[in-house]
Amino acid sequence: MKYLLILAMFMVGCTQQIAPEVDTTIKKYVPNTSKEKLIMVFHTASMDDIDKFYEGLQYAYYFDMKTKMNEDMYLATVLTEVGSNLVGVRENLNYSCEALPSIFSYYREHGGYNTDGRCSGHDANQYVIGSKVYSNRLGNGDVASGDGYTYRGGGYAQTTGKYNYSVITDDINHRVGSNFTPAAFANNITNTYIANLGGLGYWLQVGAGVCTTMDCVTDKWNYYTDSREERNANYNWIKEM
Predict the structure, then answer these.
(1) Given 64, 162, 185, 224, which residue has the most CB atoms within 10 angstroms?
(2) Does the model's pTM come out above 0.90?
């Protein structure tokens, strides 16, 4: 435990620098969506993030996103998931001591919630929490590996688990010509370009390209969401631009 606590202080907030090698023989396509439209949809995003999102969107064709309708549905999905600033979010593990055993079986079975959670004058140790609750599942290693924290939910689709990050990263490397590792991709998922590629990868993974209605996309992307009305409203607004 002492080792994990010390390591957590070092790990939280750290990211790996990524410099993917891009296969220049892979053609970029001009998206159906203009930067001007992105500025209107994601009105609180910086111009730098608009540029990063647009850069990723130039590969959309390779992820079975080939029409204006596809792109509009994707934009509506991203807008609903993360809001108008385009930044890829990460799972918040700032749980209280009381919440940990009520949410996670790991803490009900092993204890430790009063040490790891937020209570008694100390903050939640999010690195340790993630490492524990996602250990030995979703392709992650044991608690000591730290995989649970590295591969916690992230991006526009809240991709979770080493296995899922690996599948999407392999698809992205193949279609974009990059050489991302799953760990580097996960650690930089808040970067708008990386988050967008992850979203495109998830779109392909769930087969959303066949959809002709927003409800179909929602069924594939996040079936149990309670935001269907918002997603449809966002799509109806965006498609008229």
Answers:
(1) 185
(2) no
